[in-house]
Design goal:
Layout: H1 2-16, E1 29-33, E2 36-38, E3 44-45, E4 48-53, E5 56-62, E6 73-77, E7 82-85, E8 87-92, H2 131-135, E9 139-144, E10 151-159, H3 165-168, E11 169-179, H4 190-218, H5 227-230, H6 233-237, E12 241-246, H7 249-261, E13 267-271, H8 279-284, E14 289-291, H9 307-318, E15 322-324, H10 331-334, H11 338-346, H12 352-357, H13 361-367, E16 384-387, E17 399-404, E18 407-408, H14 414-429
Parallel strand pairs: 1-6, 2-7, 8-9, 11-12, 12-13, 13-14, 14-15
Antiparallel strand pairs: 1-4, 2-3, 4-5, 7-16, 9-10, 10-11, 16-17, 17-18
Length: 430
Amino acid sequence: MKNFSLFYLCIIFCSGLFAQNPAEEQKKRILLYGATAHIGNGDVIENSLIVLENGKILTIEDATNIRVDISNAEYYDVIGKHVYPGFILPNTTLGLADIDAVRATRDFDEVGDFNPHIRSISAYNTGSPIIPTVRKNGVLIGQITPRGGVLSGTSSIVEFDAWNFEDAVYKKDDGVHLNWPAEDHNLIDGSKKEEQHKALEKEFNSIFSFFTEAKNYSLGGSKNIDLRLEAMIGVFDGSTKLFIHAKTTKQIKRAVLFSKKFEIKNMVIVGANDAWRIADFLAENNVPVILNRLHRLPLRSHEDLNQAYKGAKILHDAGVLYCLDYSGDMERMGSRNLPFTAGSSVSCGLSKEEALMSISLSTAKILGIDNRLGSLEEGKDATLIVSEGDALDALTNNISLAFIQGKKLDLRSSQTSLYEKYKARHKSLY
């Protein structure tokens, strides 16, 4: 017991070694002069002037023939650098867990199957030591998403710089997450297939039964308040999105037809490994997609090793609205690599500006926050990054400035601290 307590004290101490205070609100006008501005909608301004005021983008234009008054303003000469909208990470458990091996730090999977009333935002830890490492690569906004069960719960969209979860909220309770039943296609034994079929039928029946009950409840007239069913009202009136997690062609098609049956207005497919196989179907039904991270093996052993990268191009050409996540193994630690997954899709036919959209404007559209985020446009929130090089390239990305609603972020992290420590040690030896 003593050792156990010491272990936890060590975790708490180590987590607090690099504690940071959130950035202060923007007080002065900020000028960014001379960078190549990647708007996020496909456009590029080679020599830009960006003015930030009161947390908003006041001006963005070509600075070639403009005289700049830098009095009473914070002026940044960013000539030769690149400006991007802050990257957005959907479908993540970042802030819901810190150490996988310690159960007490994992708070993304609730007991039970149908938990639409469980709100991920109430468990979000703004002090997670992982968050600063993610910000350092330009990922500034995230959709904090629960896992587990059939209906995992409700996600919320947050900014990655805040005192507490209430301050972090960008969009509260944006969507309910449904995990569509999956079948094992590798089964050969006939009896096991039959057992699986019965189990799947039972799962489908339970989902249909719950959604039928929830829809009837949403029509009103119930004398008793049911918190689970209350959380579903927005799914049926269109104010809350339904995110259906599905991988295979069969799963995706069934999920789309299911949504139509229940007249669900705002539905998004998440995961969607097979989306490239039915791109036309998704386009015809106007179904947006959050693609499982591209840095992965294909779903099936006989598929092309680069199929994940090619799939993004296929969806783009078909006119499907899609974006990228970083869910899966080591997702919280690895989510700092989100921009590099977008960069990898360039090797399979997408332009860099098209790839950028998959982690900026397209993500904002799918999450319903594109009126504030996702692109560098006048009137939108001043949430953006400045990189010394190409932000989608791991070799050249080096974020030197980052702002969330005009607040200048501290880009130090535990990694940068260790780098400086051992850099000094190296110099002392030689």
